[in-house]
Design brief:
mainly alpha, three-stranded antiparallel β-sheet, globular, 10 helices
Length: 278
């Protein structure tokens, strides 16, 4: 029940090249004058609205090759990763259950919506890559639903319930600053929090075997690097996730610079494409 990578990585794999994204004009990351070290205790949580928006932009750069995450409510396609349709701001999947949960929630808050008729099909295809009962109009109806503020709010609700809030809660419990909370969030978005070896909880378990988080008296940078090591291992277990640039040329950079607050300006690369948030 997780959101996989997006079409950029799939197409890059198929074409043997990196796609040209449409990011804002990037600025080079300065190797001098790194961000000042800020204690985790003083860090603003990722649930601060400004920080949360930054988090969504960073995730969207990896998932959609764009910082415009709010344009993704209408996004839907089968990226041929065995999880059926991937859609919306966090990559709800018809094959992993979170899309079903979303449409069920949407139908509770707005009965009779354009997607409600697909609930029987979504229940049947859950756990499979099948589109049976969804085609040919599901993608069109998804885009139509995305024009409804109630559906956009439903996506926000399920993103927070399943991914964002658990990541932030665990990050705070581990004594991590905003950056660490984001690192947890990005991991749970891609890997989910199930029982399999590459899930968020087991990535964290592998990290804990190597280092202690601040809440247990450990050094934050050392622990975050251990977590990212475990995350890279998990990504490489699946071909679709084997490009680890969202860790190597983004999250590692900020850890190295000691930017535990995830303060702007932020510069990073994903799949070779540069991004900047001022």
């Amino acid at each position: 029940m997780f959101a996989p990578h997006r079409r950029n990585l799939i197409l890059a794999t198929l074409l043997g090249t990196s796609l040209v994204a449409l990011p804002v004009t990037a600025q080079a990351v300065s190797s001098s004058a790194p961000s000042p070290q800020v204690s985790a205790a003083a860090a603003t949580g990722l649930d601060d609205p400004v920080k949360k928006d930054i988090a969504m932009q960073i995730v969207s750069s990896a998932e959609n090759s764009s910082l415009d995450w709010k344009a993704q409510y209408k996004y839907i396609e089968d990226i041929k990763d065995g999880r059926g349709y991937t859609a919306g701001i966090i990559g709800f999947c018809s094959g992993t259950g979170d899309m079903l949960d979303l449409v069920e929630y949407y139908s509770r808050v707005k009965p009779g919506n354009v997607l409600e008729k697909y609930l029987p099909a979504l229940r049947k295809v859950n756990g499979t890559p099948s589109h049976k009962g969804l085609d040919p109009n599901f993608t069109k109806d998804w885009a139509k639903a995305a024009q409804d503020s109630a559906f956009r709010k439903a996506q926000d609700h399920e993103r927070d319930r399943v991914y964002f809030d658990p990541a932030v809660k665990q990050g705070k419990a581990d004594g991590l600053g905003t950056l660490g909370q984001f690192i947890y969030y990005d991991a749970i978005v891609m890997h989910g929090d199930g029982s399999d070896s590459t899930s968020f909880r087991n990535i964290r378990k592998r990290a804990l075997a190597k280092a202690k988080p601040p809440a247990q008296g450990g050094d934050e940078k050392t622990y975050l690097n251990a977590f990212l090591d475990a995350r890279v291992w998990a990504m490489k277990q699946e071909e679709a996730h084997s490009d680890t640039s969202r860790v190597d040329t983004a999250q590692r950079v900020w850890v190295r610079k000691g930017n535990v607050n995830l303060d702007t300006p932020l510069d990073w690369k994903v799949y070779g494409d540069p991004y900047h948030i001022g």
